[in-house]
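Changelog entry

Holo records now carry the ligand SMILES as an explicit input line rather than a separate metadata file. Below, a converted record for guanosine-5'-triphosphate, shown in the new format.
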Amino acid sequence: MTKPSVEVSMGLKTFRAATMSDCLTLVKSELGGDAVILHTRTVAQRRWLGLRRIEIVEITAGSGADVPVRRPAVAKKPAAAAYSAVALATPPGKKPAPGAELLKTAAVSNITTLALRNEIETVKVLLKQLSIDVRSGSSPDLPEDLFEHYRKLIQHQVADELAREVLRKIRETVRPEHMAQTEFVREKIAEQLEKLIPVSGPIVRTKAIGPHIVALIGPTGVGKTTTIAKLAANLKLRERRKVGLITIDTYRIAAIDQLKKYADILGSALKVVATPDDIREAVAAMADCEFVLIDTAGRSPNDTMKLSELKTFLAAAGVDETHLVVSSTSNQGCVELAVERFGEVKFDKIIFTKLDEAAQMGVILNVVRNLNKSISYVTTGQDVPDDIEVGRGRRLAQLILGMGI
Ligand SMILES: Nc1nc2c(ncn2[C@@H]2O[C@H](COP(=O)(O)OP(=O)(O)OP(=O)(O)O)[C@@H](O)[C@H]2O)c(=O)[nH]1
Ligand SMILES: [Mg+2]
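Structure line, unchanged by the conversion:
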């Protein structure tokens, strides 16, 4: 348990306790009802030889009369907000302290809301911690140096058995005297993870005659059209290839416009098709292209475009390879559902988008491990054509280990 404590500095007091309400009680008992809270935050503390982290609540406050009025800070993110200058409720019949009334008018002045929000944040953090603890509950038999790496992997949502498997390999291959060298061990872990990530390399045209036809399929909004634009732009501008574009995205004018804009910039032909016959004709008309990229809709407004229909379109086009596009910001269940649903259409490779926004990259590893398909590309932002990379195992492994984007 965290013992409540008080620290005094420059006329202000910093209170620490296990919960927000304990901390507030402490503030009230020390400074009375006119106390002005300048800052609250949760602080991580290490326990049990550094193996466990616990969160405690910290409040910096002063007595209402002494505290200079500060304008409430504009919170960047509610979760990380520092709630500034919030006056504690003045007991009835007592004159409010100078500044306290003013501060109470601000939207942040409701101490109950503040306390609740902080409690919720604290609970969230504790729950997250708890889930990590539970997942590592049947605690792996790991030396302390490796346990931190294990926790990192679990934190990044790497499946427990995968994390254990990787660290087992590390124990076998890294000499005990090197085990404490965090950077070195992390590189070794990246090496192991890399082996678990199958990658396909970029799209390559193997035939001498006719276009290499590539289709992108996947759930709505994952970035299919943007990725097509990036691929087309790179093939065209960097590799000087002749590229044709086809879209089966017929229901939304905006969606066609989106691709048309890129086709115009690139000077590529764009065909919008509505039937399997159309797509056959469109491909035939692009016989002089080296690559034809086919964009598809995530779903139609009425959901009339069944996956089996999509399959018929792609068969009519004679696609050489189909890539399933999924967002790395989705949780594992969503990605697995997409893999299952689009499995009906049959796809050869997988593209993970939005790595720049992903919180837990371990999902990428878990999915490809179960899928037996390789990663062709990953995308790392909204910018066409730059934010796309050919999938590389080591790079993905480093991202999974939280080593920057
Ligand atoms: N942050 C980030 N955003 C991306 C990335 N790729 C695409 N987006 C954004 O995701 C949004 C949806 O992208 P689209 O390309 O329209 O997605 P889609 O899969 O074609 O969507 P539907 O056609 O509606 O199924 C857009 O705002 C894109 O700019 C990426 O790698 N990172
Ligand atoms: Mg689209």
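Spot-checked after migration. The mean pLDDT is 80. The chain has three domains: 5-134, 137-195, 212-400.
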